[in-house]
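Hey all, sorry for the wall of text incoming. These are the three entities for the joint prediction.
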Amino acid sequence: MSNAKRLFWLPRGYVIGAGFVGFAVIPLLLSQYYIFIANIALIHIVLAVGLNIVLGFTGQLVFANGVLFGVGAYATGLLMVDAHWPFWFAFPAGTAIATIIGVLVALPALRLRGLYLALATVAFAQFALWVFIHFDSLTHGVSGAVIPPLNFAPLPIIPPVGIYYLSFVLVIVAVYLAINLVRSRIGRAFVAIRESERAAEALAIDVPRYKLLAYFISAVYAGAAGGLFSAVVGAVVPDQFNLFQIVLQFCMVLVGGIGMIWGSVLGAIAVIGLQEMLRGLRELQEVGFGLLLLLTVLFLPGGFGAFLAKHVAGWRENLRNTSEDHAR
Amino acid sequence: MRKPLPFVLALSLCSAGFAPSVFAEEGITPTTIKIGTMVALTGPLSPLFIPQVNGTQIVFDEVNAAGGIHGRKIEYIREDDECLPARGVGAIKKLIYEVKPFIIVGGGCSNAAIAEKPEIIAAKIPWIITASTADGLTDPVSPYIFSSISPAWTEAYGILQLAIDDKKQRIAVVYQTDAWGKARIEPLREALKKKGIVPVAMEEVSPEPTDLTPTALKIQAANPDIVLMLLYPKAAVPFLRDSFKVGLKPTMVGVSPLLEIDQIAKGAGGPETVANFRVLGAAGYGPEDAQVAQWKAKVEKRFGDRFNLYHLQGIAGGQFAVEALRRAGPDPTREKILTAMSTLEAKADTYAGPFKCTPTDHQCQKTLGIFALKDGRITGVGQTTPSR
Amino acid sequence: MLLTYLLVSGITSGAMYALVAVGLVICYRTTGHLNFSHGEMYMVGGYFAFTFHVLWGVPYLPSLILAVVAGGVMGLLSDRLVFRRLIKAPPMAMVVATVALSFLLKGIARFLWGGQGEFVPFPSIVSGAPVQFLGVTIFPQQTVVLGVGLLAMVALTLLFRNTRAGKTMQATAESQRAAYLVGVRVERVYSATWAAAAALATLAAVLMAPLTQLTPDIGFSLLIKALAATVLGGLGNMPGAIVGGFVIGITEALAAAYIDSTAQDVSAFVVIMLVLVVKPTGLFGAKGQRDV
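and here's what came out:
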């Protein structure tokens, strides 16, 4: 790996530090418009990292992440609108509901692999969308529901700023946990399963249990992201959680780099930024993101994360805490 | 000061948290007025909304050419909300916090509008809705929101009134299962109950159906003398086509989205399929009628659009906005505009009935036109002003 | 009257699903991959027919032939640009790539032809009032669609099983290396397969277009139905896919009328999920399995 030509020197730590500071000061320097966009990006970081764990690290080709995102958003939102729960109860409850559903769906999916898994999860994603639309006694149907704004009393901050910093803190926690997870024994088990389920079994790894764990984790992340999403946007409608949403998420993970947590962070920020730049050019969005995903799969299968790992100092993500890491 | 940085940081944190949500006189200078709008500029519903925005734009262009309003020229800025709440909130925040318009004239898709509404109210910006008929936007009344387009319930009540006026006894209803359809079927159910009428058939269809022959057959079995179609073109065209196929040919009445009767006839297989078809919509005249010829010429010249009834709605909305701005006087503030609008009475060139707003009713337009296809042209054949 | 109409209509649309599914299965058996952009081949094929017949005024039959040829060319292009590089990649790469391709094609179609629905009318000799046949109401256009569809399916199955070309495809699927060794040009076989599948999808679109509506979004829902047919019959099983197509078509029509108009959309998803969870090999057993 060290034979690859180093293009330039930009240690990951500096970039992460700059990003951290940048996100931290946005509400102080920029208008509510930028706060909103940055908040959306933060939410998608959580989504992308969760998806990467099940898709990138464990190699399970699932299209259901958009569903769990939607379930988290609907659960949190409906508890606030219809059951009049305050956000501080609705949010954890919504995340828990999404997680439970994620695990329930994962159970039959454990037996499926590759193409069959993809097919089943695509069908499930469409089915869930249909339920969001037609189960309107619960979900308010196609017109969706409007969420009352959050109350951050007694802190003297307006709701958009409050939810922004809440998201920021959650992102830090989520990324930190994810990094530690993938460096642990569990992370290595995930990768072993991705490389070859049979070999993993031969190594006495309880494959179903670890797969279920991967599904569980991604469900927690997706559910939490969904709960934040409904609070930030202030409304939930079914259209938001269609197949294009999944294409965006896949873009984030694949462009960022399968099996690289920081890659997903970058990928999420890049994709949301790109989508915002393409505001007013929606047809271009379908073409643009389709093309981006296609080109990444064809020419840059490791994503930009792999590219950075090879050519820029300090970007390798190791699976174990080696002395190399400590020396940096 | 020894260590200004913490002090400055604390101050900016406080100011960010305390960000005032009332901007005094933004979007207005001695020579310009900035007006914003967020609509579905792209996506499947854009063919319905872009003409409306273009219509409003033409009105503003005319006013600017004549010197503006009290000497101020209008700058009209559009943002795309893609008919999705997450994109709509982004669009409205961009407008409010970056573009900073004086008022908002427009707003489309109700999916996005429901999420945009709280932002607009929180920022206390006057909003004239010219294109969205969702009842929930103007009911209950908000001091900041006015509508120049007839709300959904008028279409439901109006279409039933048409059936009653025509002395039809056996009424069948076909409606689609989406937010738009729901917004019309509920007031229609209400209206039917009030009049004590029980429909002979009530069929639900998906908004993008492929084959509606089963529905047509079921309705045919109930032997109606009129069918009320609460449908968009994507469902209405197969319905008309398949009804014609099976010989279901009573009077059919549709609502606003079906105003382009000539296009619908083309898709359904020819003018015979719409021989008994009429449309009730928020417009006063057909696009070929003499009363709107001058607007048609202007729109075609500026945008190259095919002039249709959605342009008429946009033109009316623009005229409403211009009248409100005029009445607010040479030193307008947002307060003055709101006051002017709450008692505004005026007439638009493209609607058959007048605007009338009251402090308790901000749904300022309730007259619908009735249209049919005659000799290949969409022609006005009447009007109605329903009441609840 | 309603029930018989539903059955006939279900059989007709079922024939189309079967035709599209056969294309999917041929590709799967030969190359080992499922093409998630197959629905968009159908959609683009339909728009080609629309362009030739409605926009350019070419008569119906030549339009049909031109469109099918154009569809085949689309298949060849996709192979050259996308599929060829991913033939040996793990399933994930191909699935993601074809999903991405489907959005790309959808966006391009929306840009070129607009998002409103378009209609391709049947020529006047065919369309017309319903006909009573043995007490069953049938529309002539349905018989045309059904007839051509069945013919195509039977021809394909026979071709695949009995001709040299078909056997070459099967041989390539069994072992690429062995095929190379006996002089089979594997890349050519793959190209021909993709082109044939795309042409088939176009044929289905052209036949079906006058009965439905053409929008850029129909590709995906058709893909799901074709996938449901394939999975139901057993992944890779050609006769199974044909039977599956008819079953899905009839189930949909009955569900729409007797359960709920919206049940039509959801039956395909439910079928896929149930089959994969309960009996992944489908009704008739899967074939052409690659070691996953």
